[in-house]
């Protein structure tokens, strides 16, 4: 019996990642306030578990392992302030107009948003007045090569610029031109000093592109989302049905992604991820029980609402207020691009497969594999993460 290899690979990929989640990339946000006296206030906001693990204060564990021990995590960070200072000094350097800025005093911490976020902040003394900052950033990449940090720099007079760090952009040049406008040149070697959004490499364009790529990466590494789409189109192998399923899924998850992003809906992540696994199990079970596609687009639309909440979880660390709409748009377009690439790759195989006499038998077999994977994820996420 011949079985389409793409389907085999998809199932093997899911088995190879039994703990697959809707969000694997560690995210951080940064605020930098530059004073007239040359003092720079660097504030880092991130998941406290990521912070403790990357600083060497705790063993690297799967995401969610600290969910039931927020007090332990808080005490770990609070009691190791000197280690966090060394971590910042190793992972980041700041120069102002070509001259090094030196860390001043102890680290400052804020745990009001525990257990989801903690702040680590430190002052740096730079030669005044500061016209250009160059920041070399290496934090978190030791434990997560896909780490992304987005930030704002605030110059005197509340002039603001944007910047981004990821695995390919670890140096940012932040400048203030003669007219007092804030800007960023992005990666080292790009121009600096233009007004925000018009620097070489364009601040807004650079951010849009990086978040767009983050959306693509998120869907391509979000094995639960891939498996859900696969389960849907296994039961709807005609081109017209595939188009309806993908359109319904896109509209519904875009809706809840936006609602969650702007704070209208707030559901605990473990509940969302458990529900995502349950949605996969339901669709796979229906594939086994009913030979016809039926109104598969209604399933896609209904369960897509849940998946949108999962996508929103990945964006929580990117909420930089002045560009919230742009961030949402770029990420969602990236997700749709990645999803479309998957569907376009699978559609010809599925349509050919539909014409084979052994289609129904193999569809049941594949759906059984998907059901087993989804059930395992559902139990794991509900009780062990």
Describe the model.
The protein is α+β, with helices and mostly antiparallel strands and about 375 residues long. It has 2 domains: about 5-25 and about 220-385, no CATH class; about 25-205, no CATH class. It has 11 helices and 11 strands. It has helices at about 5-15, 50-55, 70-80, 80-90, 205-220, 225-235, 240-260, 270-290, 295-315, 325-355, 360-385; strands spanning about 25-35, 40-45, 90-95, 100, 100-110, 120-125, 130-135, 150-155, 160-165, 170-175, 180-185. The strands form 2 sheets. A 6-stranded mixed sheet has the order 5-6-2-1-8-9. Strands 4-3-7-10-11 form a 5-stranded antiparallel sheet. A hairpin with a 2-residue loop joins β3 and β4 (about 100). α7 runs parallel beside α9 and α7 (about 240-260) runs antiparallel to α10. The chain is elongated.
Low-confidence stretches: 1-23, 178-202
Number of strands: 11
Radius of gyration (CA) equals 23 Å
The coarse silhouette is elongated
Helix fraction? 40-55%
State the major sheet.
6 strands, mixed
Oligomer: single chain
Q: Calculate the terminal CA-CA distance, rounded to whole Å.
A: 39 Å
SS class:
alpha+beta
Mean residue pLDDT: 78
Strand order of the largest sheet: 5-6-2-1-8-9
Q: What is the N-to-C succession of helices and strands? A: HEEHHHEEEEEEEEEHHHHHHH
Residue fraction in strands: 15-25%
Task: Estimate nothing, just give the exact number of structural domains.
Answer: 2
How many helices? The count is 11
């Amino acid at each position: 019996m011949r079985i389409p290899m793409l389907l085999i690979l998809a199932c093997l990929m899911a088995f190879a990642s039994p703990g697959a989640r809707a969000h694997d990339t560690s995210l951080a946000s940064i605020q930098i306030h530059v004073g007239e006296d040359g003092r720079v206030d660097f504030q880092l906001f991130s998941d406290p578990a990521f912070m403790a693990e990357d600083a060497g204060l705790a063993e690297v564990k799967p995401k969610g392992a600290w969910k039931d021990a927020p007090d332990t995590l808080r005490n770990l960070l609070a009691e190791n302030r000197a280690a966090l200072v060394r971590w910042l000094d190793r992972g980041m350097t700041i120069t102002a107009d070509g001259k090094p800025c030196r860390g001043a005093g102890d680290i400052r911490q804020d745990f009001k948003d525990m257990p989801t976020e903690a702040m680590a902040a430190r002052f740096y003394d730079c030669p005044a007045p500061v016209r250009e900052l160059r920041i070399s950033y290496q934090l978190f990449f030791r434990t997560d090569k896909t780490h992304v940090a987005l930030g704002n720099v605030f110059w005197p007079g509340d002039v603001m610029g944007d910047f981004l760090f990821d695995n390919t952009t670890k140096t940012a040049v932040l400048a203030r031109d003669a007219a007092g406008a804030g800007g960023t040149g992005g990666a080292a070697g790009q121009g600096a000093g233009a007004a925000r959004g018009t620097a070489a490499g364009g601040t807004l364009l650079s951010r849009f592109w990086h978040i767009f790529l983050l959306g693509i990466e998120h869907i391509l590494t979000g094995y639960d989302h891939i498996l859900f789409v696969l389960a849907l189109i296994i039961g709807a192998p005609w081109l017209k049905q595939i188009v309806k399923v993908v359109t319904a899924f896109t509209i519904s998850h875009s809706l809840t992604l936006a609602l969650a992003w702007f704070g209208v809906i707030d559901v605990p992540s473990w509940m969302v991820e458990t529900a995502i696994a349950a949605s996969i199990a339901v669709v796979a079970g229906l594939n086994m029980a009913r030979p016809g596609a039926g109104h598969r687009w209604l399933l896609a639309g209904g369960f897509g609402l849940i998946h949108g909440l999962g996508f929103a979880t990945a964006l929580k660390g990117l909420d930089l207020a002045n560009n919230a709409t742009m961030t949402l748009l770029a990420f969602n377009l990236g997700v749709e691009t990645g999803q479309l690439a998957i569907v376009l790759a699978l559609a010809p195989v599925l349509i050919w497969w539909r014409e084979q006499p052994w289609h129904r038998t193999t569809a049941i077999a594949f759906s059984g594999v998907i059901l087993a994977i989804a059930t395992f994820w559902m139990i794991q996420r509900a009780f062990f993460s």
